[in-house]
Design brief:
This protein is of the alpha+beta class. The protein has four helices and five strands; from the N terminus they run ααβαββββα. The chain is 31% helix and 31% strand.
């Protein structure tokens, strides 16, 4: 089973395409129908993928790619970047600095009832 670290390692090593990473992350975010035997999470269960932010060589080409494949409408524009709606979440596309290496900058998961003070204790 893939976890986020393995997915990002494979992506960084060129073993996974951007498309394969998106599919793998969405599969992780989907709720499981099987009962889990895992210890309860420290922070709380992730309820959905809130957003993913990608640094890309061309915002325009990447926007066209995601809109053509998934029909993702523009949610907002921020500076030179764009946020595309993906269900209740979004994918942010921003230019890589100096047209550097495209990469996944971060992903953000939604957690119901999250309390930062309790999580840091």
């Amino acid at each position: 089973m893939l976890n986020e670290d393995l997915i990002f390692s494979k992506y960084d090593a060129g073993e996974m395409s951007r498309r394969e990473v998106v599919v793998a992350l969405l599969a992780i975010a989907l709720p499981s129908t099987a009962q889990s035997q895992v210890t309860p999470p420290l922070i709380g269960p992730a309820t959905q993928l809130n957003h993913a932010t990608l640094f890309v060589q061309s915002v325009e080409r990447s926007q066209e790619f995601y809109q053509k494949l998934f029909g993702m409408p523009i949610l907002t524009r921020q500076g030179q970047g764009v946020n595309l709606r993906a269900g209740a979440g979004f994918v942010g596309l921003y230019p890589a600095r100096d047209r550097g290496n495209p990469r996944i900058d971060h992903i953000c998961l939604s957690v119901d009832g999250f309390d930062a003070k309790s999580a840091l204790a």
